[in-house]
Amino acid sequence: MGRVPRSGHIDSGGLHAIQPRKQAFSMNAQVSAMAAVAHNPRREPASMAVATHARMANAIRALAMDAVEQAKSGHPGMPMGMADVATVLFTRFLKFDPADPAWPDRDRFVLSAGHGSMLIYALLYLTGYESVTLEEIRRFRQLGSKTPGHPENFITAGIETTTGPLGQGLANAVGMAIAERHLAAEFGGIVDHRTYVIASDGDLMEGVSQEAIALAGHLKLNRLIVLFDDNGISIDGALSLTDSVDQVKRFESAGWNAWRIDGHDAAAIAAALDKAQASDKPVLIACKTTIGFGAPTKAGKASSHGSPLGADEIKGARERLGWSHPPFEIPADILAAWRKAGERSKGAHADWRRKLAAIDAGKRGEFERRMRGDLPENALAEAVAKVKRSFAAAAKDLATRAASELALEAIITAVPEMIGGSADLTGSNNTRTKTMKALSAADYAGRFIHYGVREHAMAAAMNGMALHGGVIPYSGTFLVFSDYARPAIRLAALIGERVIHVMTHDSIGLGEDGPTHQPVEHLASLRAIPNLLVFRPCDPVETVECWQLALQAKDRPSVLALTRQTVPQVRKTLDEANRCAMGAYEIAGAEKAQVSIFASGSEVAIALAAAKLLGSRGVAARVVSVPCMELFMQQPQATRSAIIGSARVKIAVEAGVRPGWDSIIGSDGVFVGMTTFGASAPYTELYKHFGITAEAVAEAALLKMN
Ligand SMILES: Cc1ncc(C[n+]2csc(CCOP(=O)(O)OP(=O)(O)O)c2C)c(N)n1
Ligand SMILES: [Mg+2]
Q1: CB of 77 closer than 6 A to ligand 1?
Q2: What is the pLDDT of residues 582-634, one digit of tens each?
Q3: Whose CA is nearest to atom 12 of ligand 1?
Q4: CB atoms within 10 A of CB 615
């Protein structure tokens, strides 16, 4: 599909006089730029019938100033500075249809600098999205509005991803661009769009941006175009306080095409976007802008970044910009021009619908299923049943990471939208099955991504892939390095996307690598994230069940914590039902139990051995496996009480720290686990050293009984 035709009515001329094109950032240049604005404000004769670029951009500026003023908080500077860039992008390049924010082949636009949320709200209102009305703009930052402080994709139609934590949006966009290429490789011309990003200095200073741009450059994602708001300002003041990176060189070295433009020159912006669309590499366009453009004393200064401009400053800005309209009022001709821009892609959308209708029905159905995010439930159920039958036929003692690989061999065939990966630990995480091809610049159809040692960008890109739709990303790294991915995992939970993190080497059970590699607090800290499912299966059967549950959790991310060390298969008989579905279940019962032992993962076997020991001492003990605390906590009170049981002594065993377990065993329950960091030694010795053994559990139970 060719480029979206441009509307012809936009006047992009006449801007050169306002700002010198090659404006190096310095106070002098700022002063002279502002002087130029003062002498030659963007005033248009009132009679002018045609809305010009400048007036359309000023509509964004005015809405941003007014909304922030009304809310008494927010960030006017960035929307005012990037108004010209955004206007050119949305009126002439971006392929989008406000009437159908979910059109699968729309271009994706990510406002990575989420603090500038008024920029996207203004754009959504002006171009005609139903979600953002003028009333919603007046309610900027208020409870229940469609215009929260930072853009939230789950609140406002037209927002592609939640942004605010700097760097995340950029890395999400890399994932969106990966998903686009991957689906295009499979479905051909019905997937043919670009991903545009507006990123700020802060986005590019964050470490995750380095991981993300390196990955994008390596994968030659040439449909990814980043518009960098090169305003030389961050919260603390001039960027010279903190940064001397040449971003153009930095991106070039990562395999991007990159160059600088004057971000207030509409013709230069359009020329750059034209050039970017023809690039064979991802593109960075560094747009030199003035933050708070138009504000008489605050333009070019950090003071325009994050607080209302104030009545006098707004009055001055209105004068300078030649914007005489009252707050929240957009003159009819400007609004009409914007609405017309919002209709630009209607033809492309209709063409696309025709193209979709013309493809083979089976392929179309498959594409639509994937984009809806519906699983091939029957195929998945058959795959899971097949794996379970094979484990029941010949019980296997396996590391759960190895069991996961066996499960994946069946599951990835049944669920073709899954795209696996690992942050350079493929052989350790067991996430690449024998049949999976690598996804690369030469073959976007591959289903396994070698993310490199980039856990944070991996997790953030996965969020973008899931948001793009049509794919279900899963990853691999060590559980201890969930810390490196945590900001993106938290966002996956907030936005409610199905991404699955396989995190192996899940305790001191990894042994000799020692305490730097042994997670201790990680299960507890991941369980503390709302809406995240943390699975810790105890054996091969639970592992395949947990995979099924993670895939079925359409609106939630999951972590699968898996062992490095071999664990015995404890579920030896075939269960058709998914016993992990309630999050916890009795795995070994006892008549008139005096003790209930709760455990997860590799410690379930220890709990079972402890119950046996207690039995031999005449104490009836039952064992409850807890593969997923979150799913358990979701059960009705009566179900939970029945599973927790009424034994007087409750003990939990997990090779991690205690927090979280009190909700099952109570504050007077006994916890056998870790209170310190681990150590380097063979794992069997470590379990003894740290007192996580069947004997220790039995001892603790007896002590508590007396
Ligand atoms: C990860 C993260 N750290 C800190 C912040 C708080 N914060 C918001 S904007 C910003 C920097 C502002 O500078 P820049 O990114 O250049 O945006 P501009 O002021 O130019 O709009 C910071 C530190 C954040 N949003 N995310
Ligand atoms: Mg900045």
Answers
A1: yes
A2: 999 999 999 999 999 999 999 999 999 999 999 999 999 999 999 999 999 99
A3: 234
A4: 15
Strands 566-567, 398-399: pairing is: antiparallel
Q: Is 302 left (phi over 0), alpha (psi -120 to 50) or beta?
A: alpha
Across all residues in the chain, what is the average pLDDT? 93
For ligand 1, atom 19, which residue shows the shortest CA distance?
Answer: 234
Q: How far is the CA of 438 from the centre of ligand 2 (A)?
A: 37
Q: What is the pLDDT of residues 135-151, one digit of tens each?
A: 999 999 999 999 999 99
Of the candidates 44, 69, 455, 654, the residue annotated as catalytic is: 455
Of all ligands present, the nearest one to the C-alpha of 118 is: 1
Q: Which among 108, 168, 99, 162 is positioned nearest to 128, based on CA atoms?
A: 99
Strand-pair partners of 474: 500
Distance of alpha carbon 43 from alpha carbon 35, whole angstroms: 15
What is the bridge-based pairing of β-strands 237-238 and 233-234? antiparallel
> Which residue type sits at 191?
V
**Which of 204, 235, 287, 309 gets mutated to test ligand 1 (max ligand atoms within 8 A of its CB)?**
235
Residues 6+ apart with CB under 8 A from 442: none
Closest residue by Cα to residue 656 from 440, 508, 441, 485? 508
C-beta of 202 in contact with ligand 1 (< 6 A): yes
Q: Say what the pLDDT of residue 697 is.
A: 98
The reply to whether ligand 1 has any atom less than 6 angstroms from the CB of 164 is yes
Residue with tokens 């493929």: 426
Q: What's the rounded Cα separation, in Å, for the pair 5 and 381?
A: 46
Ligand 1 in contact with 201 (CB < 6 A)? yes
Nearest-atom number in ligand 1 for the CA of 202 is 15
> pLDDT tens, 543-594?
999 999 999 999 999 999 999 999 999 999 999 999 999 999 999 999 999 9
Query: Where do we find the tokens 């395999």?
Result: 255
Query: Is residue 166 lining ligand 1, measured as CB closer than 6 Å?
Result: yes
Structural contact between residues 202 and 194, judged by C-beta atoms closer than 8 angstroms: no
The secondary structure element, H or E, covering residue 534 is: strand 533-535
- In DSSP terms, 59 is beta-bridged to none
Q: What is the pLDDT of residue 22?
A: 33
Count other Cβ atoms within 10 Å, centred on residue 329.
15
Tens digits of residue pLDDT in 28-82: 333 333 433 333 444 444 434 346 999 999 999 999 999 999 999 999 999 999 9
455 is catalytic: yes
Q: Are 649 and 670 in contact (CB under 8 A)?
A: yes
- Give the ligand at the shortest distance from the Cα of 204: 1
pLDDT at 4 over 80: no
Beta strands in 231-364 (DSSP E): 233-234, 237-238, 257-262, 283-288
Q: What would the pLDDT profile of 208-233 be if each residue is shown by its tens digit?
A: 999 999 999 999 999 999 999 999 99
pLDDT value at residue 706:
84
Element (H, E) at 670: strand 670-672
Q: What is the CA radius of gyration of the chain?
A: 28
- In contact, 4 and 344? CB cutoff 8 Å: yes
Element of type H or E holding 621: strand 621-625
Q: What is the mean pLDDT of residues 400-418?
A: 98
